[in-house]
């Protein structure tokens, strides 16, 4: 099963819930104003902060439930990355809305290279073990957020209002993403919950 695979599964469901379909809602809206962007950014900032606090708190329970007591530190490192969620989601949505796919790829590939090749490999060679992957994954997401914000310079002033049509579309996306996540991850969840790493041949 692997500690990193477990972390990625937890990240998948937490990210879907925290993002709650806001990104696609920004992309599909016919007319997008600064107010829409600010409301979306505010909602994501709140959900990202809430997910950070929640995941830090329940990390020991999740690690114990899936027989990975050494995954607590990795989950808590990953939890902190949700603080940059609004920059990632809003920036990515605006780039795709503009069809600026070059910037989308640069943000993804560039941050992946620095995160996994430079930071991840460097930490592994330094003897940090599985925590190297958590640091690599977190670096990848943080650098991606920085690049996406730099490429879009979207407003970050908070504004709390309800966007009816966007909210309805976002909730439909959320439901779809949850179903997709479950169908893609159910086998790994059952294996990880039923067997310990040693039973699966993973040391």
Notes on the structure:
The chain is globular. Helix 1 (3-19) runs parallel beside helix 4 (72-80) and helix 2 packs antiparallel against helix 8. The protein is built from eight helices and no strands. With 203 residues, it is mostly helical. The protein starts with a helix and ends in a 9-residue tail after the last helix.
Which properties best describe this structure?
single chain, 203 residues, mainly alpha, 8 helices, disordered C terminus
Outline the fold blueprint.
Elements: H1 3-19, H2 22-28, H3 34-65, H4 72-80, H5 85-97, H6 101-125, H7 131-152, H8 164-194
Q: Could you state the oligomeric state of the chains shown?
A: single chain
Spatial separation of the terminal alpha carbons:
10 Å
Tell me the total number of β-strands: 0
Low-confidence runs of at least 5 consecutive residues: 199-203
Average pLDDT, rounded to a whole number, is 88
**Helicity range:** over 70%
Using only CA atoms, what is the Rg?
18 Å
Strand content: under 5%
């Amino acid at each position: 099963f692997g500690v990193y695979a477990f972390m990625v599964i937890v990240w998948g469901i937490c990210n879907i819930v925290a993002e709650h379909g806001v990104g696609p809602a920004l992309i599909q809206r016919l007319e997008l104003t600064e107010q829409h962007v600010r409301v979306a950014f505010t909602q994501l900032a709140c959900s990202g902060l809430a997910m950070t606090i929640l995941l830090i708190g329940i990390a020991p329970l999740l690690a114990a439930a899936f027989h990975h007591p050494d995954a607590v530190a990795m989950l808590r490192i990953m939890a902190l990355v949700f603080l940059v969620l609004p920059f990632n989601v809003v920036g990515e949505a605006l780039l795709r809305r503009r069809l600026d796919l070059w910037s989308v790829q640069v943000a993804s590939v560039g941050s992946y290279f620095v995160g996994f090749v430079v930071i991840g490999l460097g930490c592994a060679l330094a003897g940090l073990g599985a925590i190297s992957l958590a640091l690599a994954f977190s670096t990848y997401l943080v650098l991606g957020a920085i690049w996406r914000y730099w490429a879009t310079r979207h407003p970050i002033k908070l504004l709390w209002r309800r966007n009816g049509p966007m909210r309805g579309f976002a909730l439909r996306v959320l439901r779809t993403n949850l179903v997709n996540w479950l169908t893609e991850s159910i086998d790994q969840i059952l294996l990880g919950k039923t067997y310990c790493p040693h039973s699966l041949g993973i040391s």
